[in-house]
């Protein structure tokens, strides 16, 4: 395993020495869990913010943490440009021909050069094609383009869905949801409304509140209708007509109607519903990264879309159980305009709530911007991780420091930050993490995704991701006609009547001419009971089997499951029939035998598949989709791992403290003995101490610090000609240091020995529960006639479905 493939930590780059500015070689690993207190990336244009965020998202995806990314500039679809082979041909469609010609190269030559650059870049950071492959395999990536048909579409305006119960039950949150929806909608039609004084705002909010509080959704036409004829006659203490007369309400309704009638409106109505759960997990349970590119939208439309999406995320988060592990990431590549310090656009209200509430539910929010003056200070106060990159001017730096000072209650080490961020190079960031004791500088690692820059709409078309597979239409299979019967129809009917055989048929759709063929039909209700997995469920089954002309009339192994609803069956013998039922089918005694055989055979077919994760002792509930269960299990696994790692760290931390105290006493002894060499020794102790602290906090990798400890130790050993006392004290110190180094190695070993979250033991498995004999109930066994239609060539098509 590579040093950076540590569980639960993101490999973001390598540390840079803050005094010399040169690389120390030590990896920068960021604890995924720390992102639950959110992060902010700040740096001038070109400083590498998007590159850093893309790398962080890549790390999340390798760890199977889903991501929603809002992309105001168009760069984030680059996340789909990952090529495990790193072949020139992979890059060719994405390199810019203009850039190629600027360098005097053909696109092919330029693609070859770019492929080389990427291969070398990644190689320098210890990343190969296999890791790119792993990332691609772990997740489903999708690019959405709201309001445009280029990528996947989201139907934002089809309906204003009632927020989930968890939001409706929380008075403040519900009011906020109503208000931000009203503000976003009004902003979309060009009305910048104050929630307290604007009558448009008050009216729309009241309409939404009326509907939503009853759990009902609302579409644009019905909203327009309700603006004209509200279901209430007063607003506040005022009569509706006085507050907002009919004529004026009509104007508002017309404005909304213009919007709805505009051709550009149609794409807002189509596509996938605005559903955060769906954006985070594919139906098969794979985690997703959903990228929402909005660079093609107008400012109003962007504000509208972003507010609606954030609203949805906030509602979704509230329906999730709490956790301290990282469940999902919400990234926004440029926050400018959405989170301003003074104004109050709808996006800001939602973002503030999200920053406050998301933490408890494990949603990490990462925001990027060129300057913190674009940020609301209340939002800043809730942020635990800061990545500060190169800044344009001294003045910008001063503003950043000013911004941080105002925002921080815990106290940023401002002087230190000031010193460290002066004159940063490209792709070098300061990381200030409230969970760490001091800020560090690091250079961002090479991104696995090809950072081609903004992609065109044409390119997005090829990138949009696995298309939502349309439900396959039940294709009718032509069959060969059973040998036509010779018996007159009336005779079958009368014989059925006489023999007392139960005969039923599936009526053909109205107006369709059909002929009927005989089958043996068996309907059963099956109860599945499994205390251990707390399953108690009843399912209905319908099977049919053709009668065989051979010695065995009925062989259940040839049976198939019918897709039809048994309640559609009618009693009797239909006309016309295309084939006669064999004589055995008219013998009631045969049915007793077939029924017995059926019940013996049924358990092989009627099995209840349940998804389980045995290592976690979790079983999917019957109403739980694969995606929901996978999400629940993934989070449980992460929680388990975080807890185990924490336990190990804690266990070692107390032993470390003991050793540290012993080391301190030994150092004091040496100090007492050798006054004159004091400076040097302290230096040794300090460099040793830092190397070690890093390892114990688990944020950095041990290999380098172990070798650095080697240096520290030999440096100490080289110190010469001391008195016997000093030598003994020094020996003690060395022994303690040795012990500390061993302790570190042991701890790393224990952490690495934990079962990785993506190991097969942790995977979701399918198990089958078979019914007990007493749980199976035969509800109908009889002659079953199924309809066919015949074409002009005599071919037959069944008018019923098989499962
Ligand atoms: N991690 C990385 N790996 C490889 N190249 C990178 C990385 N980060 C940045 N770059 C290079 O630097 C360029 C600029 O970086 P990036 O786009 O991340 O800057 P930015 O801070 O997001 O700028 P802006 O504010 O204009 O969006 C990228 O187009 C890419 O060529
Ligand atoms: Mg950028």
In CATH, what is the class of the largest domain?
Answer: Alpha Beta
Spans with pLDDT under 50 lasting ≥5 residues? 467-490, 697-711
Radius of gyration: 34 Å
Q: What's the CATH architecture of the largest domain?
A: 3-Layer(aba) Sandwich
Number of strands: 25
- Structural class by secondary-structure content: alpha/beta
Q: How is this fold's topology laid out?
A:
Layout: E1 9-16, E2 23-31, E3 39-42, H1 49-62, E4 67-71, H2 88-91, H3 97-102, H4 107-124, H5 129-138, E5 140-144, E6 154-155, H6 165-168, H7 171-188, H8 199-212, H9 220-228, E7 234-235, E8 238-239, H10 240-243, H11 246-261, H12 266-269, E9 272-273, H13 276-280, E10 288-293, H14 299-318, E11 328-332, H15 346-357, E12 363-369, H16 377-381, E13 385-388, H17 394-407, H18 414-420, E14 428-433, E15 440-444, H19 457-463, H20 489-499, E16 503-505, E17 515-530, E18 535-546, E19 560-561, E20 570-571, H21 588-605, E21 608-613, E22 618-619, H22 626-673, H23 678-697, H24 702-718, H25 724-753, E23 765-769, E24 776-790, E25 796-798
The site of adenosine-5'-triphosphate has 18 residues, from helix 1.
Question: Would you give an account of this structure?
Answer:
The longest helix has 48 residues, at 626-673. A hairpin with a 6-residue loop joins strand 14 (428-433) and strand 15. The protein has four domains: 1-80 and 129-156 and 280-469, Rossmann fold (3-Layer(aba) Sandwich), CATH 3.40.50.300; 159-269, no CATH class; 489-607 and 771-798, no CATH class; 629-753, no CATH class. Helix 9 packs antiparallel against helix 11 (246-261) and helix 23 (678-697) packs antiparallel against helix 24. By secondary structure, it is α/β, with parallel strands linked by helices. The radius of gyration is 34 Å and the shape is globular. Helices cover 42% and strands 17% of the residues. It contains 25 helices and 25 strands. Adenosine-5'-triphosphate binds next to helix 1.
């Amino acid at each position: 395993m590579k040093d950076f493939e540590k569980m639960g930590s993101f490999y973001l780059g390598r540390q840079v020495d803050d005094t010399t500015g040169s690389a120390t070689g030590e990896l920068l690993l960021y604890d995924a869990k720390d992102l639950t207190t959110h992060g902010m990336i700040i740096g001038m244009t070109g400083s590498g913010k998007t590159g850093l965020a893309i790398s962080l998202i890549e790390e999340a995806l390798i760890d199977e943490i889903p991501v929603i990314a809002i992309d105001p500039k168009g760069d984030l679809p680059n996340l789909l440009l990952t090529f495990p082979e790193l072949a020139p041909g992979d890059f060719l469609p994405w390199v810019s021909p203009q850039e190629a010609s600027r360098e005097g190269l053909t696109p092919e030559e330029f693609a070859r050069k770019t492929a080389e650059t990427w291969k070398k870049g990644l190689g320098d950071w210890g990343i190969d094609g296999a890791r790119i492959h792993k990332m691609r395999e772990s997740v489903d990536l999708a690019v959405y383009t709201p309001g445009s048909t280029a990528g996947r579409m989201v139907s934002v305006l089809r309906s204003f869905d009632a927020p989930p119960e968890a939001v409706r039950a929380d008075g403040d949150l519900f009011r906020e949801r109503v208000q931000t929806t009203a503000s976003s909608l009004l902003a979309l039609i060009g009305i910048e409304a104050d929630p307290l004084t604007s009558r448009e705002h008050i009216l729309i909010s009241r309409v939404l509140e009326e509907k939503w509080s009853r759990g009902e959704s609302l579409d644009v036409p019905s909203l327009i209708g309700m603006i004209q004829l509200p279901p209430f006659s007063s607003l506040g203490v005022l009569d509706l007509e006085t507050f907002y007369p009919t004529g004026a309400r009509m104007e508002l309704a017309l404005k909304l109607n213009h919007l709805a009638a505009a051709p550009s409106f149609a794409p807002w109505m189509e596509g996938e519903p605005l559903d955060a759960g769906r954006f985070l997990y594919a139906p098969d349970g794979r985690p997703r990264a959903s990228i929402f590119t909005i660079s093609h939208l107008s400012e109003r439309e962007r504000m509208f879309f972003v507010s609606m999406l954030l609203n949805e995320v906030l509602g979704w988060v509230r329906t999730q159980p709490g956790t301290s592990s990282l469940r999902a990431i919400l990234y926004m590549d440029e926050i400018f305009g959405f989170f301003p310090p003074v104004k109050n656009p709808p996006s800001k209200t939602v973002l503030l709530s999200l920053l406050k509430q998301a933490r408890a539910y494990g949603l990490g929010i990462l925001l990027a911007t060129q300057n913190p003056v674009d940020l609301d200070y209340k939002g800043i106060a809730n942020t635990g991780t800061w990545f500060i990159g190169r800044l344009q001017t001294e003045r910008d730096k001063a503003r950043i420091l000013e911004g941080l000072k105002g925002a921080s209650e815990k106290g940023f080490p401002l002087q230190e930050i000031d010193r460290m961020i002066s004159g940063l190079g490209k792709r070098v960031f300061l990381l200030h993490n409230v969970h760490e004791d001091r800020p560090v500088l690091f250079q961002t690692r090479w991104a696995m995704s090809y950072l081609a820059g903004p992609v065109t709409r044409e390119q997005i078309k090829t990138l949009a991701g696995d298309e939502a597979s349309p439900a396959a239409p039940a294709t009718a299979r032509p069959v060969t006609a059973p040998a036509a019967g010779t018996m007159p129809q009336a005779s079958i009917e009368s014989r059925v009547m006489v023999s007392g055989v139960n005969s039923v048929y599936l009526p053909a759709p109205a107006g369709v001419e059909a002929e009927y063929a005989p089958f043996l039909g068996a309907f059963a209700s099956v109860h599945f009971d499994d205390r251990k997995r707390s399953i108690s469920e009843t399912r209905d089954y319908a099977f049919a089997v053709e009668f065989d002309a051979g010695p065995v009339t009925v062989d259940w192994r040839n049976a198939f499951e019918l897709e039809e609803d048994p309640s559609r069956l009618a009693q009797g013998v239909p006309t016309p029939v295309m084939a006669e039922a064999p004589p055995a089918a008219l013998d009631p005694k045969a049915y007793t035998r077939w029924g017995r055989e059926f019940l013996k055979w049924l358990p092989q077919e009627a099995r209840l598949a349940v998804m389980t994760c045995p290592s976690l002792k979790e079983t999917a509930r019957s109403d739980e989709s694969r995606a929901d269960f996978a999400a629940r299990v993934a989070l449980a696994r992460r929680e388990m791992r975080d807890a185990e790692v924490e336990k190990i760290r804690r266990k070692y931390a107390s032993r470390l403290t003991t050793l540290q105290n012993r080391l301190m006493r030994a150092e004091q002894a040496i100090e007492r003995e050798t006054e004159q060499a004091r400076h040097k020794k302290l230096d040794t102790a300090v460099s040793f101490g830092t190397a070690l602290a890093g390892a114990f906090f688990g944020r950095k990798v041990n290999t380098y610090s172990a070798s650095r400890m080697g240096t520290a130790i030999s440096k100490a050993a080289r110190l010469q000609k001391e008195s016997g006392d000093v030598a003994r004290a020094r020996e003690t110190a060395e022994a303690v240091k040795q012990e500390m180094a061993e302790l570190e190695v042991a701890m790393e070993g224990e952490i690495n020995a934990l079962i990785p979250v993506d190991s097969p033991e942790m995977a979701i498995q399918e198990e089958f529960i078979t019914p007990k004999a007493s749980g199976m109930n035969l509800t109908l066994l009889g002659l079953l006639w199924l309809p066919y239609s015949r074409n002009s060539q005599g071919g037959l098509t069944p008018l019923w479905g098989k499962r």
